[in-house]
Amino acid sequence: MWDKIKAFSSEFFVTGDPLILGAQVSIALTLVAIVFTLTYFKKWRWLWTEWLTTVDHKRIGIMYIISSLLMLFRGGVDALLMRVQLAAPGMEFLNAEHYNQIFTTHGVIMILFMAMPLMFGLFNIMVPLQIGARDVAFPFLNSFSFWMFFFGAMLFNLSFIIGGSPDAGWLAYPPLSGLSGSPGVGQDFYIWGIQISGIGSLATGINFIVTILKMRAPGMKLMQMPMFTWSVLSSSVTILFAFPILTVTLFLLFIDRYLGAHFFTLDGGGNPMMYINLIWMWGHPEVYIVILPAFGIFSEIVATFSKKKLFGYKSMVFALMSISFFSFFTWAHHFFTMGSGADVNAFFAITTMLIAIPTGVKVFNWLFTMYRGRLSFPTPMLWTVAFIPCFVVGGMTGVMLSVAPADFQFHNSYFLIAHFHQVLIGGVVFGYFAGLYYWWPKLFGFKLHEGLGKWAFWFWNIGFYVCFMPQYALGLMGMTRRFNEYNFDMGWQPLNVVSTVGAFLMGIAFIFQVWQIAHSIKFLKKETTGDNWDGRTLEWSIPSPAPMYNFARLPVVTHQDDWWEKKQRKLRGEPDAPEVIAAEQAPLEPIHMPRKSGNAFIMSIFWFIAGFGFVWDWTWMVIPGLIGVAVCMLVRSFTYNTDYYIPVEEIERTEAAARGAH
To answer: In 3-state terms, what secondary structure has residue 124?
Structure first.
C-alpha cells in the first residue's frame, strides 16, 4: 500500500529539481500566510462580500490587473531563467526538459495570462466610464468571465508543481503535443487551462460589444466615442471571431490525445499542418487583439498631454477597424517555409504588407497631434513617446519578415524573437503601463510616485534595447530559437551575455514598479480634483475613485471629447446646450444596479474541478464537476432577484462626500 502511495505521489508531484522544490515551498508558505492573515484579521466575510461575489466592473477590473501583474512576475522569472541558461555556452543551469517547459509556459503566460487580463482590466475599468454608463451590459457574465480566466490560469500554473509543465512550445505544435510526443499530463494542463480561460475571454468580447453599442450616454454617437472605446470595440469584434477557432483547435487536439483520434497525426491519416493553420488563424488575430487597445490608450494620452484634439480621428477609427479585418488574412506568413507554393506565399506577403499601412497611419496621427501642441511629459506620456520609435522598428522588421524569400532566412531565428518582443513589449506592455499610470488616480483615488515611476521607465526601456537588439544580430548569425545550449565556436556568447544583462535590467524595472506602488500606498497622496490630468473624456468628469454607480445623473453628450469641450465653454463663458443643462439640473432618481452573486465564482470552481479531472483522466472528478456547472446554470436561470435600486438619500450622501473632498 505504501509503495502505491509513494509511486502515485512521485507521479503527481514534480520532484527532483531544486528550482521547482523552491517554488513549491514558496507557494505553500504564501498560501499559509494568506490564510493566516485573513483569519487573524477576520477578513473572510469581507473577501466574500466585497470581492468574490462582486459584479462591479471596477472591482473586476482591479482583480484582472492584480492577476496580470502576478503573471507578469511568473512569466518574467521564466524569461530570466532562460536568459541565464543561454548566457554562456555549455551551461547546465537548466536541463533540456526543464528549459522546454519554461520556454512553453513563458509564452503562454505572457500572452494569455498576462497581456489578456491586463487588457480586460483596463476594458472593465474605463469603457463604462468613458461612454457614460453605470456598468457593463451583462454584469453577471462579466464576473463569470473573470473567474473563468482566473481558474483557467490557476489550472495551467498548477502544472509547474503537479504533474509537470507542458513542453511542446507555447502554441503546442503536433506531433510534439500529441500523445506520442507528450505522454504526460503537462499538455492536458495546457489544453484545459487555456480552454477554461478562453470561455471567459470570448464572453468578455461579447459583453463589451453589447456595452459599447447599446449603453452609450444619451447623445453620444459612434463617431463621438473616445478612441480607447473604439479600440476596445475593434479588439472585441476580433475576439468574437478568433477565439472560437482556438476552442475548436484545442478540442480536436484533446480528442487526439484522449480518445485516440487522428486529426493531426500523419500515421493515422491526419495532418499536423492543419493544426498549425488553425492555431495561427487564431494566433495572428490574437496579436492584434492585445495591441489594438494599446493604440487606443496612446491616442487618449497623446491628446491629453498635447492639449489638442486627436489628429485624424476618422482615419484612426478606419485604421483600427481595418486592422481588425485584415488580421484574419495574414496567418500563413508564420509558415512561408511550409511549401504551399509561390501563389499562396505571395498572397499572404501582400496582405501582411497591407496591414502595415493602417498601422503606420496611427503613428503619423500621434506625431501630428503632438506637433505644435502644449506638450507635458508625466509618466504616461513618457511611455507613449518611448513606444513610437520602438514600434516603428518592430513594424519595419515585421515588413522584412513579410517578404517570403527573406523569411526563408529569418524563419525560426532569433531575428523573429527580437521582432516579436519588440512589438509585444514595445507595443502592448508599454501601452498598458501607460494606461495604468494614466488611469491609476481615477481607479484608486491616489497618484503614483512620479520619481520612482521614471526610474522604472528608464530601466524598462534601456533594458529592453540591451536585451533584444543583440537578438536581431544573433538571428542573422544563425541562432535559432528553442536552443537550450550552444558551443563555443558559434561565436554567440558575447551578444547572449549582453541580452541577459538587458533582461535583468527589465527585472530591476519591475522591482521599481512594485516599490512605486508600495511607496504610494504608504505615503498616500490623494487625488482631490477628479481630473488630475486635465482630461478630455467623461471619466474625468466624476470623482476619483469613481462611485459604485459611476454617474449620479447620466451625462448628455454633444461633442467628441465632451468633457474637454464643456470645460472650454465654461472658460469662454458660453452656456451649455439646453439638453445638457436640463440633464444636470434634473432631480436625482434611484439608480438601478445589479446585485452581487457568488454563482459565477462557484461555477468557475466546478469548471476547474472538471478540468483537473480531464487532465488526470479521473472520471470520478469530471462528472461531479460538470454536474456542478449544470446545477449552477440552473440556479442562475431561476434566480429572479438579480438587481436593486440605490435610494436617492444614499446617492446624495455619496455625492456630498465626494464633492466635499473635491
So the answer is: helix
